[in-house]
Amino acid sequence: MQADLPSQDAIYQPTNFWAQASQPIIDELRQHGFDAFRSLETTRVFFVPTYGAPGGAYTREQFEQLMALVGSMDKPGGKTYQSLLHALSGELWALADYRVLLASSADDKGWPLASFSESDVGAPQEQFRFDGRAFSRSALNYLNGLSFLRQQIGDEVASIRNVLEIGGGFGTLGEILSQLGRFSYIDVDIPPTAAVSSFYLKQQGGEHFTDYLATRELDVIDVPAAPRQMVLCPWQLPKVQGTIDLFVNFISFQEMELHVVKNYLQQVDRLQTRYVLLRNLREGKAVKSDQVRYGVDKPLLGSDYDTLLPNYELLATNVYPFGYRTIDGFHSELRLYRRRG
Questions:
Q1: For 167-184, what is each residue's pLDDT tens digit?
Q2: Closest residue by Cα to residue 324 from 316, 314, 315, 334
Q3: Which H or E run includes 27?
Q4: Is the pLDDT at 87 greater than 80, yes or no?
Q5: Quick one: DSSP state of residue 137?
Q6: Nearest 10 degrees: CA dihedral of 229, 129, 64, 125?
Q7: Helix 137-153 vs helix 172-180: angle between axes, to the nearest 10 degrees?
Q8: Residues with Cβ < 8 Å from 113, sequence gap 6 or more?
Q9: How many Cα atoms occupy the beta-carbon half-sphere of 201 within 13 Å?
Q10: Which residues touch 256 (CB under 8 Å, ≥6 apart)?
């Protein structure tokens, strides 16, 4: 994937955010391999989200300092110690998201999302267990996003059979769909994350997974029938033929520039996608500067999608309960669109 990238059209090259982030990730993966990728420093910063450090409001070092202070106040196992650990570790936040999942699953419309349990592929550093099932922040983000979709379109969820995602992180959505068992899934992503998600999904779907080497030379890539999953690189997206029931992008569009997102959404439209489910910072990502290395030239705002999706109507947006509001006032909102006509 990495060898093929430089010769591709500029529209499929990483923009500033990922151009800056890719090399440190590649270096760390080359040094440590993929077996424990969910415990590596760079992956946890960029595409393995956590509730606690480093995804929370403090670093791992600060967490350890805070826990040392907690330890001076109460013995391990004490009520004060356990209560503060519950909050500082991120488990309290994860439990809140899990409660949203349960509350929204009373009528699952044939999508038993609350029965999901995440694997330990990649040796996750942070994973919480509720009612005997395992969840990461990535898993609960997707599960609550899909719960929002299910709430908004009701019985129509039964008609969704295939899913296209751009920027699938390490493959969580594919794992969820694999456990539901009746979907085909295409993840389009740049290297190195596309290589990581390939590693992850191959261990979820086994013989039902198609990797980049199998599609690299194809001029036409048909939308697969369930239960097949595949990972493609962005320059392959124009070769995909068929129709898509659901398109998903969680977070990564906000890390791109507007002209790049516009091109991707034109491809989504070309495939006559019925539903578009997005998660984005309503106020957009920070602008790059001397102080902000991993920034964008111009923030992509939540309202920009209305212009970028002219053939779609906005059905609903949501911050609470399925998204969240950051401590510094940014809104991580879900946006759901339906194709007109």
A1: 999 999 999 999 998 899
A2: 334
A3: helix 16-32
A4: yes
A5: H
A6: -20
A7: 60
A8: 101, 105, 143, 146, 147, 150, 176, 180
A9: 32
A10: 15, 17, 18, 296, 300
